[in-house]
Design goal:
The chain has 426 residues and is an alpha+beta fold. 54% of the residues lie in helices and 13% in strands. The strands form seven sheets. A three-stranded antiparallel β-sheet has the order 3-6-7. Strands 10-13-14 form a three-stranded antiparallel β-sheet, with no helix packed on it. It has a three-stranded antiparallel β-sheet with strand order 15-16-17, with no helix packed on it.
Length: 426
């Protein structure tokens, strides 16, 4: 349930009738895609009604078998994540009901210790998506209030502190705490040591820049810029950023075994760099430079070819050693590369994106269930085998299919998306 609603928004955008007409499809094709569109809409409606009836808007997720609910954040995650899906699918009544609940009944509990990262991408991001589509100020104003609460933990770090080891005063680091107590505003590490991860520190610029623009308040953008300026100053080896960073001063946390990856705990950092550059109207050349350096480093260090099929895949580097394993999360990369190619016309990026996309789809099509393993190992002579066989309704592969379809107009990407949807339904 957690990601089904997010998956569905990407799927529906492949098959809206307006897309079919633009492609001049014949009548039978048009009818086929309209039927598929309606199947996806009904799946969304079923999921939404179940969440509303058995979990309730005040809870995060539905437990569909027991018809109960589960709170992993206590922030009505499914509701906020579904707003743009409801709007795009033209569920007007459901959208208005959700909007009314946010305006009149949503109360941000002060007794929560929440993830900065998850609250931003799911709650604030969901609200801003709804605002971008509808123009309703309720959504952006609510997002601003939540962001203000998250920023309390950061603003407390602005004060100078005394370092007992050096006898000097200094300011705390430029990075946000990964966890925030909404009552006290105190920030906390979540990894046992005072560190944060690459994805946690670098996946909020899009939302905070948007807030500054629409609320006419520079504080949000200033914080996002400060993090990106700091990361740009680190000049990491190979152009790739390690996973962990010290909260005290923002330096790379070398006491952890160094890992270089575009998978878990790193993925969205790279994605946000490109999208923030686009968000600036392609005017911030430091972001473009950072994206190009990271992209080139991925090409040079992390892309390999499987055997016997010759498919491209993404490996990792841990402790200086290459680990030929790939997360499903890394399937965001074909979409990122295709988006980058769309913005700058690099044919090489699009070709690599399409080859990686085929590998990501193979994670689904080679599985007996039609659903991808969450992590696979690439073994010479066997292509890949599942390491973590769980499937968690992650949206990365489907979003990449959406972007590639919009970029290339190749119908195969719609067909692959439909096959994934059918496997989820089964």
């Amino acid at each position: 349930m957690r990601y089904l609603l997010i998956n569905t928004i990407a799927l529906i955008l492949f098959v809206l009738p307006s897309n079919a007409s633009k492609l001049n499809e014949n009548e039978s094709e048009r009818i086929k895609w309209e039927d598929r569109t309606e199947s996806i809409r009904q799946s969304m409606k079923h999921a939404w009604n179940g969440y509303k009836q058995y979990a309730g808007f005040e809870n995060d997720e539905l437990k569909p078998i027991s018809k109960g609910y589960y709170n992993w954040m206590g922030m009505s995650v499914s509701l906020f994540s579904s707003l743009d899906t409801l709007y795009i699918m033209d569920f007007k009544e459901e959208f208005e009901e959700a909007r009314s609940w946010i305006a009149n009944d949503f109360v941000m509990r002060r007794d929560l210790n929440v993830s900065f990262f998850e609250t931003n991408i799911r709650v604030i991001g969901g609200l801003l998506g709804a605002h971008a589509l509808s123009g309703d100020e309720v959504f952006v104003k609510t997002a601003g209030k939540i962001a203000d609460r998250l920023m309390m933990g950061w603003e407390k770090r602005e004060e100078e502190i005394y370092n007992k080891d050096t006898g000097k005063k200094k300011k705390r680091g430029n990075l946000p705490f990964p966890s925030i107590d909404l009552s006290s505003g105190e920030g906390y590490p979540t990894w046992g040591r005072p560190v944060t991860t690459l994805a946690e520190l670098g996946s909020f610029g899009l939302e905070f820049n948007y807030l500054s623009h629409h609320l006419n308040d520079s504080r949000y953008k200033e914080m996002a810029d400060r993090v990106m300026d700091h990361m740009d100053s680190l000049n990491p080896d190979h152009g790739l950023y390690p996973l962990h960073y010290n909260l005290e001063d923002g330096s790379i946390a070398y006491f952890y075994l160094s890992s270089l990856t575009v998978g878990a705990s790193a993925d969205s950092f790279y994605e946000y760099i490109l999208k923030q550059w686009i968000q600036t109207g392609k005017s911030d050349f430091s972001l473009r430079k950072l994206y190009e350096e990271s992209r080139n480093a991925i090409y040079s260090n992390l892309i390999f070819t499987s055997s016997p099929s010759g498919d491209l895949y993404l490996a990792e580097i841990t402790g200086g050693e290459i680990v030929h394993e790939m997360d499903h999360l890394a399937c965001f990369l074909p979409g990122m590369l295709a988006l980058g190619a769309h913005e700058d016309g690099h044919d090489k990026d699009l070709k690599i994106a399409e080859r990686l996309m085929e590998t990501c789809f193979n994670l689904y099509s080679c599985s007996p269930s039609g659903l991808a393993a969450d992590r696979v190992m690439f073994i010479p002579g066997y292509d890949f085998v599942a390491k973590n066989k769980g499937y968690f309704l992650r949206p990365e592969a489907v979003e990449s299919l959406f972007i590639l379809y919009r970029k290339t107009k190749k119908n195969i990407y719609r067909e692959w998306a439909w096959q994934i949807f059918r496997a989820i339904e089964r």
